Amino acid sequence: KEIELHxxxxxxxxxxxxxxxxxxxxxxxxxxxxxxxxxxxxxxxxLSIENLLNFxxxxxxxxxxxxxxxxxxxxxxxxxxxxxxxxxxxxxxxLWNRFNDxxxxxxxxxxxxxxxxxxVNFENIVEQINESQLFRFIGRWELxxxxxxxxxxxxKTDLLFRLLEVNKLYLGHNVSLPYWNMDTAxxxxxxxETLNGKLYLAxxxxxxxxxxxxxxxxxxxxxxxxxLSLSPFDNWEKEKINASKGDVYLNRINLFFxxxxxxxxxxxxxxxxxxxxxxxxxxxLLKNELKQIR
Length: 294
Hints:
Blueprint: H1 43-52, E1 55-59, E2 74-80, H2 91-99, H3 102-105, H4 108-111, E3 116-121, H5 131-144, E4 149-156, H6 157-173, E5 185-194, E6 197-206, H7 210-220, H8 243-250, E7 256-257, E8 261-262, H9 277-286
Parallel strand pairs: 1-2, 2-3, 3-4, 4-5
Antiparallel strand pairs: 5-6, 7-8
């Protein structure tokens, strides 16, 4: 039987949604540049959420690593870099030491576990840090914690693009080196400023070749906002990608559930206000203007 229009449905939950559209108001795009929109959540994606919710979260600004729960499926440990002046020859050493304090040094064995992810919040120094300092910070991490998983968040997407250019220049002088780390990957949640707040994008820095790097980021872009489509430097759409080699690398790293979908770390990673990156994106997107179809 057909349900009459404008009649209440007698079973289930009813919603009335009113969209405040003013057809005479000038439209302003929320993002400065056009980007690709990720697809919907798959069944595998839903399972990845369930799996991640069994991880223990530890914010080092609120509780020590001594509170670790051994029975947890994994650990997400968040550290925030305190504000300081990133000027002078000693700044990079100070940056590393402020991050790598005794609470981390004494837990190297835990950090090296496959299901431990160290998240670093750059919120306090986002306006100061440059691409060279960030490049050396990642290199220092890989020297001190080889095989460990690092997640960087609250850096601007433009800084991420410049970081990729620094890596390109570095490889130009060291052609025998892998493109990024071929045994692990660093996940970066950078953000674009919009009219309504921050929009976070997920990118992975890893792979023996550029093809590996492009392969995993195209996979991330299936379900996440990703910076590849925004890059002013890359012409990656025309580059050939070796999917079979990409799969070999993908199965070697632990950022993806069932080597298929990126773990939704944005559901758990919080900024200083206590909001998760997912909540930031949801709030920003819900405030977006709707473009009129005239």
